[in-house]
Amino acid sequence: MDALFENYRTLLARVSARCGEIEAALSGHMACRKGCSACCLNISLFPVEAVSLRLAFDTLSEDQKALALTRAAESSDEGPCPLLDGAGACLLYGYRPVICRTHGLPILFDDGKGNQRVDFCPENLQGLSSLSGDVMINLDPMNQMLAAVNAMFCDELFGTEAPFERLSIADTLYLDVA
Predict the structure, then answer these.
(1) Nearest to 170 by CA among 40, 37, 60, 29
(2) What is the pTM assigned to this prediction?
């Protein structure tokens, strides 16, 4: 099954590298840190992300799994991510999905009305009056790449139709990947 995730892992590496560049460029203006989890919600994932995260879940200790499953059972849509430990740190940080890697950073996106907007965590970028384009993540092309990677993954794993379009992180923890 490892070969199925080659494109996804390549995308994650590219996103992480880009995020690292931005974090370095804005280091004096970033409040994000381990335990800062206001952005960490029970978001929905594409199948490639869900299956990858579910497989990574198996690497956790039994205590960590039990904690996450308890939180998943109590979770609601857009509630806190069930993969947060008691201190607000991600139990599967190294395996986190694309959107989790970009949380807090300045993202450029189309608002659906033809306007370009920039969004970022309000705790970050304090004292800056402007941002240059080289410290932003262009969300639309990144999402297009993720959608293409997901489509290839689904074609290879599921054939003509995936069993779900998106799945919450909480529901992902119960996914049968055998």
Answers:
(1) 40
(2) 0.91
Tokens 């989890």 locate to 37
The burial of 152, by beta-carbon neighbours within 10 Å (0-12 exposed, 13-18 middle, 19 or more buried), is given as middle
Q: In this predicted model, what pLDDT tens digit does every residue of 103-156 receive, in sequence order?
A: 999 999 998 899 999 999 888 888 888 888 899 999 999 999 999 999 999 999
Instruction: Say how many Å lie between the first and final Cα of the chain, rounded.
Output: 11
The answer to whether residues 97 and 49 touch, using CB atoms and an 8 Å cutoff, is: yes
CA pair distance 149, 156, nearest whole angstrom: 11
